[in-house]
Protein 1
Amino acid sequence: MLVRVLDGHQAFPPPIWMMRQAGRYLPEYRTLRQKAGGFLDLCYTPELATEATLQPIRRYGFDAAILFSDILVVPDALGQSVRFAEGEGPVLEPLSLDRLDDLDPTVVGHKLAAVIEAVGMIRAALPDETALLGFCGAPWTVATYMIAGRGTPDQGPARKAALLDPERFARLIDVLVAASIDYLIRQLDAGADAVQVFDTWAGVLDAAEFERWVIAPMRAIVQGVRAKRPSARFIGFPKGGFGFAERYVAQTGVNAIGLDWTVPLDVVRDSLQPQVAVQGTLDPMRVVVGGRALEQGIDAILETLGAGRLIFNLGHGITPDADPAHVATMVARVRAATATG
Amino acid sequence: MLVRVLDGHQAFPPPIWMMRQAGRYLPEYRTLRQKAGGFLDLCYTPELATEATLQPIRRYGFDAAILFSDILVVPDALGQSVRFAEGEGPVLEPLSLDRLDDLDPTVVGHKLAAVIEAVGMIRAALPDETALLGFCGAPWTVATYMIAGRGTPDQGPARKAALLDPERFARLIDVLVAASIDYLIRQLDAGADAVQVFDTWAGVLDAAEFERWVIAPMRAIVQGVRAKRPSARFIGFPKGGFGFAERYVAQTGVNAIGLDWTVPLDVVRDSLQPQVAVQGTLDPMRVVVGGRALEQGIDAILETLGAGRLIFNLGHGITPDADPAHVATMVARVRAATATG
């Protein structure tokens, strides 16, 4: 059903899945994570990545599974080693723009063979009606971590690098575009029904920089993949970039745009949904809180966006403090909805 | 000239000032700050607050001075004591919504007498042609600090409190609305030509919450002040809330809206400028970087927004790592601009 929405059809109730649906809010995930050792061991062991991917499908029957992995496996495969420190998020050795020649995008797909193997195993294990989503990080967002070596409040180090030395920064982005094209094609060939490109840090750029580092690389990825796999389906998620959403959609050719929770739903309905499927937009905090706050949030989305092309999702990943019972409530409420929108 | 733009006229080159123009990027500020002792001592000593306010005016001749103070003097006056830890930002004892009865908005204006005295001293010292801006934090943003006790990546504690217990959260907002009205009236009476209301954390709310905690309180403040001072001029700055900017302007009655740097300039020109004066929108990182990045950023704003009602400013406060020489370059370039927009 999710694939049909990406292909231009409308469905009500809408298909539903959740960003970070395989994650720490689930007790079975925490058990698996403990067994695996490090976070990247989980990503790089196909059986474990498959199990993590399937856990939320078994529990909730979501309409889509998303490959269990991380956007930073690409820099890891490029040779900039990544580790996940407990409670700190990812840590990388900060990249200097002097050392770009060390980065070889052609090795990424090969080095990530274990991830591609997981995609095949997951597709084989999933019910036919459940879509499988592959993904990667968008070049800008991946670059922000590569430059800063970690997450920062507004990714100032990469913003500064891009303004100080746009030519060399463009070379880094080009490397990431090439690696992403290869990596996504392999995911599609292994069984992914569509791919999502996460630009989590799109929202820190001004208009000129957004055009150059978010829209242009995304267009290059979509065109590069479709040059070889013409029917490839894309969900773009330029988080925080709502002011540029219309031009992002028009210029990149995505099948759906992911939206965070800070968007005016009526404007989305009037100006975006006629162009493209939209995905989101529930505030993850409403899933944490539950009760009336959760119900009102769900109902507002269904009422305003339910008559158009919609993939129900949160506006960002579910957080570890969310109660799994609230997720069950959400799925039931969306599925019980009757078309009043 | 800034006042004329707030009153509905267009000016080119536009008036210019900078958020946080009295701040750590200036050596003379760092000297003053050291002499003062604590940050709040600087805010609460009228002679020192006056000196801090005037420093950037002497150096750059900005079209507006803004009272040197902090948005957290209001919770401090309400009895929730605030301290500024070096390199950490503000720290407050987190407020429980059980203890709202301890907060008395009627004492705020009186307790902040030293700040009001500074307003009068600054107005007396400023050239006539330099506008003086007073300010306060918007209720939502001040509440996020009161609840969390500090800044957090997405002010989750206040978002959670507002969803869990909206009735009590509304009482906190009401206290802050009442305190803000009294405080802003005193600033206007002491000589402020206009007041800016900073909603730095407006951008973390979904549509329903933005309406309730950003727009409605701002409308109440504007109406409450104008009920007693009908000609009061307001600049509203709902940072990160671009998707709601049109309704914010229409529903609050502000004279100008402050915009951060992540906005589509052509949409601002076409949909906002016909309704209201706009203030911003230069990425503060362009002032840090200088050179071509700074020139291009300035020129894009002047070319796209220069033909409408514009107050040139940064999209957020100038950062401590900015070179004062870059600020001089910026002022000169804006003032040398000829109308091509």
Protein 2
Amino acid sequence: MHEIEGMTEFLIGIVMIIGGMHGNELTGVYLIKLFEQFPHLIERQGFEILTLLANPQAIAECRRYLEKDLNRCFNKQDLQNLTLSSFEDKLARQIYNNLKSENQSQINMFVDLHSTTANMGLTLILIKLHPWLLQLAVYLSSINPEVRILYIPSHAANSFLISQCELGFALEVGPVPQGVLNAVLFQKTKEIISVVLDYVQAFNQGSIQSKTNTLALYEYAGTIDYPRNEHGEIQAMIHPQLQARDFEPLNPGEPIFLTFDEETITYKGESTVFPIFINEAAYYEQGIAMCLTNKREIVVEAS
Amino acid sequence: MHEIEGMTEFLIGIVMIIGGMHGNELTGVYLIKLFEQFPHLIERQGFEILTLLANPQAIAECRRYLEKDLNRCFNKQDLQNLTLSSFEDKLARQIYNNLKSENQSQINMFVDLHSTTANMGLTLILIKLHPWLLQLAVYLSSINPEVRILYIPSHAANSFLISQCELGFALEVGPVPQGVLNAVLFQKTKEIISVVLDYVQAFNQGSIQSKTNTLALYEYAGTIDYPRNEHGEIQAMIHPQLQARDFEPLNPGEPIFLTFDEETITYKGESTVFPIFINEAAYYEQGIAMCLTNKREIVVEAS
């Protein structure tokens, strides 16, 4: 793994918690509103915590976005390209400039709250295998076995807002429909945020003992689209045997789709994979029926 | 119950199956597309079957509607009010005029396909207690114990398209997120449609023996909104103990909401009710956290 160089030499000054990057993912939206109403819920000693409702207009309309997925607008080239004029391109530049004016270099950590119609449980999404984040991942996994760690390499995630920050990560919880609050998932997400903030406080106070440990990491390896006809219309659904089985092994020859006229389509890959984001509503239009990951056990070494 | 007068004296000439009244309820949308691609699936002897994708623009955008809920635009006054100019008001008039030009009096039955994020299972929604429909309800309940019968009196449902037809009813299936296909619910809905069409064919052939039987009817009795603050923002979620318990008894004093700061709110009514459409995504904006029904056993008499 990476060296954990310098890990004990920095302190976390500002954490920003983000909700409503997608306006119909209500868990994050209402957690941010709750935190803004009752700041003591997230106040900790020794560092500042900011909140952001990323796309208020999309939240008001309860839509993922108005013109373009906001969380695909943050790569550096796009932010500098003033000819990009969609509502969300402009909003991304505004958010980025606000962050800079708040002295972005002081913001050490982004926590971006998302929800999904897929059975993703409580998933921590990392886009960099930063040793500090891996220690956090080990810690969260150890106190809550429901927590899973997904790694999307930054080349596939460089348009996410969290890519703007050294310690950026997302929390992805599900299954919950778009436009719906699930009280159990809401409370679990709130609890994880609380644990993360406690961990940051303890880290700053020097009371985190980093440990060498193994971690189950699901590493993004691509996507599978639905079967489509010549007009781009889907011709099949997620197979009942695969529905809700995110993070479970899928072997070659096992069912993945059921066509509308009831033909089973099997997985044609050559090795076992671990599908995630199975049947996520927002991905139909993106040509994604599920994402595939490889599961590996990594050793996270103590600093 | 109503007299079943004339029940054996008419034949059903045309059945129209409708999907996509709400553009993000994919079960109905893709069933209609399937039926249009493979008409033999719904062809029966002795009557004609039409299909309608009600709101193609909303379907293309995977939204419930563009400007206004289409299934609230079909009351007679609104259809005659040419000053109503929303996209869906115009579309409703167009659908209505098309039906008339197809000699609407020949269309005896509308089957309107809906899906919901609530745990509604397979629900037949009636807006008139027409004896023919009650016989159908008894039959469907008898061959599939999952089928439930919801009665929304027509004064509360006179803006539904199905109110335009003597034998109009809706199928409401769930739980499934908006914008998502669930293969199991898709197949169950398809099977119910097939059974209904077989029943119509048998009825026309005179081979349906109507029987006196009891039927469990859930009768619409109003709605409950989420607790809201002075800005209209919701302050609580469906309580975990009530989530997904559609059609189950709710007694006074039992939990219905959990506020964001974790206070339980109980049901303040004076008698047992049977909530439905619990946590339906589309109803947040309508001020509906759930609908309440009264359950009663009725006697459906043989003709």
